[in-house]
């Protein structure tokens, strides 16, 4: 692992310095056009369930046609494009088209219920929403409840009277000039590219804005990705892990494998072997299932092609970590610690078990006490991350944004508590919020408690997580009944 440097005077830890590969005015859409032209004949995307392949030139042409169709839909710079869909063939082109037109993307999980989906879309107010045939009824119910006008467009399947992706591609041919670049002349690197749903630092779901510039700097890693790299991530676009792998493919010229099928150990191993995947970004829940599989030798053989497994999203249990070292080897398995707000912060590759590892390139961190005073090595406090690039904060939520950064606007208060050891390794200890993860999904105890408290006979309630190696946490609940109910029993 690269070394982490400590400034004992400033009490700041710093990762390796690296240059910014693109200028401050460059946008993700513009870089995608350059890379897709450069790799025009290369297969850049494979949809595993059908085997459908798309070359760089095909992705380029379809993305530009969709960008033209967006203009015909009167989408303006700053209008939001909502997505509630699984990974299928045309999702990438929709993302590129939105990036080209300066329309931020707000992806939600396709399995969210109508209430959760409506809650977030009322914040971001997308002008169009892309969904699958499978969840159209949910999105249709959401649309009828929203206080603004929007249009639903199907990414998969067809329905009478509902526009679908093929209709949009056909519409994009009307008046289309293939010489048009679709690079928004008024767009710059600090403008918002994605609005990502996250619990944030203070607990409740909110829209985390990420700029073109910040995501370009996160995804452009020539030391890790080459044109020979084959990327895979099971997560839908709702998760930052999927956004990262999609963008890593587009800005590094990597082939990306996608699927809309759910995770299973057998399917994962088969997919990896068939496509000779070399880089996997995954979550502790899936890695725990791999570690506990009884077919360890067969799994190890099928996954020999993978050079790097990167696991992120929550703390990896020590027992699972040891089993993964045995299954994959210490130098092929990495644990990544990061935030939706900033991206990756530190990575542990073959380092001490239980540690979050050493800081990534261009990352600076302080550890502070409750009074904001900086702490030194082996002293536990809140972890602060330096905002080297402009951060747009939480979408339409200036109050939460203000309490999440220091008064000078230079440091993000993560809400995580931990310390650095003498070797410069970061150790996560706890969080300020009571949010916990179950199978990678955030659980908000207060929301569940509010529902239970309305049940007859309930006096007090506490919802909490019980640590579990596979699911990270199991959700548990303790209830105190009313005295009259106790007497009646």
From TrEMBL:
GO CC terms, sorted: peroxisome
Domain AMP-dependent synthetase/ligase: 40-395
Gene3D superfamilies: 3.30.300.30, N-terminal domain of ligase-like (3.40.50.12780)
Protein name as annotated: RE41484p
Chief location category: other
MF GO annotations: catalytic activity
CDD domains, A to Z: Firefly_Luc_like
Entry-linked Pfam families: AMP-binding, AMP-binding_C
Keyword Coiled coil carried by entry: no
Every AMP-binding enzyme C-terminal domain range: 447-483
InterPro entries in alphabetical order: AMP-bd_C, AMP-bd_C_sf, AMP-dep_synth/lig_dom, ANL_N_sf
Subcellular location: Peroxisome
Keyword Ribosomal protein: no
Keywords assigned by UniProt, alphabetized: Peroxisome
Annotated organism of origin: Drosophila melanogaster
């Amino acid at each position: 692992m690269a070394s982490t440097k400590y400034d004992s005077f400033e009490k700041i830890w710093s990762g390796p310095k690296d240059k910014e590969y693109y200028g401050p005015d460059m946008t993700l859409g513009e870089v995608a056009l350059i890379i897709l032209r450069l790799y025009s004949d290369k297969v850049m995307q494979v949809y595993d369930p059908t085997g459908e392949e798309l070359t760089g030139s095909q992705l380029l042409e379809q993305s530009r046609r969709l960008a033209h169709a967006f203009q015909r839909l009167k989408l303006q710079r700053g209008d939001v494009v909502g997505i509630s869909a699984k990974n299928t063939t045309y999702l990438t082109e929709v993302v590129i088209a939105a990036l080209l037109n300066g329309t931020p993307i707000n992806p939600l999980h396709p399995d969210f219920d109508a209430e959760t989906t409506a809650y977030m879309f009322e914040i971001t107010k997308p002008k169009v929403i892309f969904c699958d045939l499978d969840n159209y009824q949910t999105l249709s119910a959401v649309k009828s409840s929203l206080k603004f006008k929007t249009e639903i467009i199907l990414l998969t399947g067809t329905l009478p009277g509902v526009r679908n992706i093929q209709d949009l591609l056909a519409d994009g041919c009307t008046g289309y000039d293939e010489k048009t670049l679709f690079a928004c002349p008024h767009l710059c690197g600090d403008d918002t590219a994605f609005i990502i749903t996250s619990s944030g630092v203070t607990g409740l779901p909110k829209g985390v804005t990420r700029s073109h510039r910040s995501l370009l700097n996160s995804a452009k890693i020539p030391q890790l990705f080459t044109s020979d790299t084959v990327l895979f991530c099971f997560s839908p676009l709702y998760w930052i892990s999927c956004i990262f792998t999609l963008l890593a493919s587009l800005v590094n010229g990597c082939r990306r494998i996608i699927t809309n099928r759910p995770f299973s150990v057998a399917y994962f191993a088969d997919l990896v072997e068939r496509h000779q995947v070399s880089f996997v970004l995954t979550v502790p829940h899936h890695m725990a299932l791999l570690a506990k599989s009884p077919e360890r030798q067969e799994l190890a053989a099928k996954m020999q092609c993978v050079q790097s497994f990167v696991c992120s999203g929550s703390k990896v249990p020590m027992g699972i970590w040891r089993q993964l070292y045995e299954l994959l080897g210490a130098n092929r398995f990495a644990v990544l610690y990061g935030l939706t707000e900033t991206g990756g912060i530190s990575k542990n590759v073959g380092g001490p078990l239980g540690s979050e590892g050493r800081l990534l390139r261009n990352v600076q961190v302080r550890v502070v006490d409750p009074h904001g005073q900086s702490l030194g090595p082996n002293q536990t406090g809140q972890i602060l991350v330096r905002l080297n690039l402009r951060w747009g904060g939480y979408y339409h939520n200036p109050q939460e944004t203000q309490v999440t950064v220091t008064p000078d606007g230079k440091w993000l208060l993560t809400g995580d508590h931990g310390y650095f050891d003498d070797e410069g390794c970061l150790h996560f200890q706890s969080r300020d919020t009571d949010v916990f993860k179950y199978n990678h999904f955030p659980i908000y105890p207060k929301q569940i408690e509010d529902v239970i408290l309305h049940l007859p006979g309930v006096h007090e309630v506490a919802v909490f997580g019980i640590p579990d190696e596979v699911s990270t946490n199991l959700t548990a609940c303790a209830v105190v009944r009313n005295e009259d109910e106790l007497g009646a029993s």
